[in-house]
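User: what does the whole thing look like in 3D?
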Amino acid sequence: MELSGGEILIRCLKDEGVEYLFGYPGGAVLHIYDAIYRQDDVKHILVRHEQAATHAADGYARATGQPGVVIVTSGPGATNAVTGIATAFMDSIPMVVITGQVATANIGSDAFQEVDAVGITRPCVKHNFLVKDLSKLAETVKKAFHVATTGRPGPVVIDVPKDITDPAIKIPYHYPDEIKMRSYQPVLEGDPEQIKRAVDLLLTAKKPMIYTGGGVILGDGSDELRTLVKLLAYPVTTTLMGLGSIPYDDTQFLGMLGMHGTYEANMAMHDCDVLFAVGARFDDRVTGKIAEFCPNAKIIHIDIDPSSISKTITVDIPIVGDVAGVLREMSKILQKGKKEPNKKDLQSWWKVINGWRAVDCMTYDRGTDMIKPQAAVELLHEITAGDAYVTSDVGQHQMWAAQYYGFSKPKRWINSGGLGTMGFGLPAAMGVQLAYPDETVVCVTGEGSIQMCIQELSTCLQYGLPIKIISLNNRYLGMVRQWQEFFYENRYSNSYMESLPDFVKLAESYGHVGMRVERPEELKPMMEKAFAMKDRLVFMDIVTDQAENVYPMIMAGKAHNEMHMSPNCEIPQSPQSPERELS
Amino acid sequence: MRHIISILIENEAGALSRVAGLFSARGYNIESLTVAVTEDASLSRMTIVTTGTDRVIEQITKQLNKLIDVVKLLELTDGPHIEREMLLLKVAVTTEESQQQLRRLLEVFEGHLIDHTSVTMTIQLTQTGEQIDSFITALTDYEILETVRSGVSGIARGDKYLKI
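Assistant: Here's the predicted 3D structure for the full assembly of 747 residues, as structure tokens:
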């Protein structure tokens, strides 16, 4: 079988099992688009901006675990895609992005719509390729999928000059079943000796803490984590990216940790004597002040990426490997071993933790005549039975969604944690809804973020995606305003959203349903109505309390035990760990 | 502390910029970097001289290993090794006496005179980076017209070698 470069590319995607290709056509990819037109196996989703193509593919990947695939043209097509590529890179999301390039002979001549896509994307991809030889195209695609999906996943860019896809030049097609790269062999199995040492250390703990991250979700390790957590009966917290790996209502779950984490999770982090980090990378939003991070703890760390280990925090027992496999091994050792956790110490530790829990740090004022954003998210949980796929944009609404939705399953909470990309939520929801047409998909957003990719309402109409948009509209760029309130004496520099559109009419003009909710008592019936419209996209413009802040909060440069609490929350003003009770 | 890291890297377009980009993006120091193809044309050998705390050096080696094109890495300064750098240097010479003095200095440092005109002398010196520093310092009485340093190349001693 002889195929042209454009046909080869699309055929490779088919052979790779690609379901959807998110993209936007342009000059340099016209040959490829012609090949797309002449087949039905790979479905192309036409977005309205290349940034959205990458976010949609990213959302698809986060929800399914399968790589998201994108095609954009050269020049502005590639540069528009960069934000989405960087977003995927920061959260280790498998993605393959095909960028068109000017013809090989024109590269470097400042040709029309030429950018050095390989150069521009280099710092925000796991790897990238420039295809210079048609005979290497299929092999390059195979390598791209291999690199994107194995080890620590990430986005891979394939830059394809126009002449490579010339329909007049055909070569025999062969797609390799597998590929070996001498320079890329990620370590997947944890060292058995290190695993044994880790179990031994864990069992010596008097005040243990398990801290898990996005690696558990990406590495499909939730079941293994739950098993181990039950065997140990230790407290567990997750990062923003790890929500859902442990059910929100599990008695051992202390909630999310970090800058906007719970009081109990952060206090337990500060006081623990053995910290067990699983697929988490000690991000600055998690650690707070590095010098005072878990000051008395020995640290065990499982990560598939050796460079994540001892990057900011030096660990005592590093284990490089696939999270699920390592956790399974640890559970095996515990199940057949004679040693078990010290029940008495653990009991005292839980007593202390339950004291912190009693503070009820997530409480907020429920009795006002304004809609509280937290209440809207709690109601969302109720109406969707806590089982929706929830994407979010970035800002206060993102934190409230993380804090108040309550996730029970992995891969349901889809947000841009590392890069913090506003505009992520709606296109990501499109990717999720395409992957799971029968599931409830919600985009929790704000009136600031939603406007960054609002054009995708058009894509949603074209493909009939019944996403529910929950826009918490506080007429402010809320997180910016909150920091200006705390750190800039209420000088709200450019954080007020003036001249907002009428979101109801906007949604309607795109062919969807719009709703505006202003009164707390209207919220429940309106939201029920919205979710009853199974086959329609509904944009809920929910007018919320302008002054609400995200609490608790660890201010920049502070330690875990120096949290700033909500005014509604009654705790000792200088929160001290009740260590005396223990000793 | 000064470290010398040797890497074998796929001899592909852009491989050098991946390494250079890594150093600038992550704010690591780079004192010198040399690269050239090996006996196997598909591989390049790179020698990087860098400075940093142990933690930084550990991160540098991990991040370099993470680059898909990097096949193998060896930190030379972890064990016995040999480093060499080549210097090409041109000085202005006026008097017979200054020429004689420079020839004596070359003997001490085991350098070679590779070009000589009535007004200039060009020197080649292959030594450790430190000895080259000393040599240049010893030239305080001369007007240096040009200094060209190759950057350090390094190799491990004995039966340790970087090979796939």
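In plain terms: The first strand of chain A starts at residue 2 and ends at 4. Residues 573-583 of chain A have pLDDT under 50 and may be disordered.
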